């Protein structure tokens, strides 16, 4: 029983989700940029994706961190780290959820966040603003 549980657990690690910018299998990616470099030994992202994760206006999602005014750098670093985790980590298997959109078949859902990270994110972003209630839906893309 223990061997079966270990095999099930291991099957959830070292995989890439089926999404727009992910590689099909994780592997070394020695030139990862900035905050994404944590995953350079085994990554689901490419060097170009890691670079784009740091851009204010990135082609990854056609999204601008400064969409409602300049986001403070100390705040932005948390969103960049979140993007690097999503794009690069090969260990998100336990939180992969099936979805059916035009740009991805899988997403991550309910990934735990350490209390210290959550509190620091709040501290660094509490004075930042957004003009959108929910970043995950309801965008009007007609103007680009």
TrEMBL record:
Folate receptor-like domain residues: 15-143
Cellular component aspect of the GO annotation: external side of plasma membrane
Gene Ontology molecular function terms on file: signaling receptor activity
Keywords: Disulfide bond, Signal
Matching PANTHER family: FOLATE RECEPTOR, FOLATE RECEPTOR 1-RELATED
Family: Belongs to the folate receptor family.
Entry protein name: FOLR3 protein
Gene: Folr3
């Amino acid at each position: 029983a223990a061997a079966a549980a270990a095999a099930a657990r291991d099957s959830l690690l070292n995989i890439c989700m089926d999404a727009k910018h992910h590689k099909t299998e994780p592997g070394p990616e020695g030139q990862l940029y900035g905050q994404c470099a944590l995953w350079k030994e085994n990554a689901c992202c490419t060097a170009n994706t890691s670079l784009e994760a740091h851009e204010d206006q990135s082609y990854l999602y056609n999204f601008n961190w400064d969409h409602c005014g300049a986001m403070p750098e100390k705040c932005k670093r948390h969103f960049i780290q979140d993007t690097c985790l999503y794009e690069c980590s090969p260990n998100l298997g336990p939180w992969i959820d099936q979805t059916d959109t035009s740009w991805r078949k899988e997403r991550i859902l309910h990934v735990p966040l350490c209390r210290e990270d959550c509190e620091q994110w709040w501290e660094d972003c509490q004075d930042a603003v957004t003009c959108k209630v929910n970043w995950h839906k309801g965008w009007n893309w007609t103007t680009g």
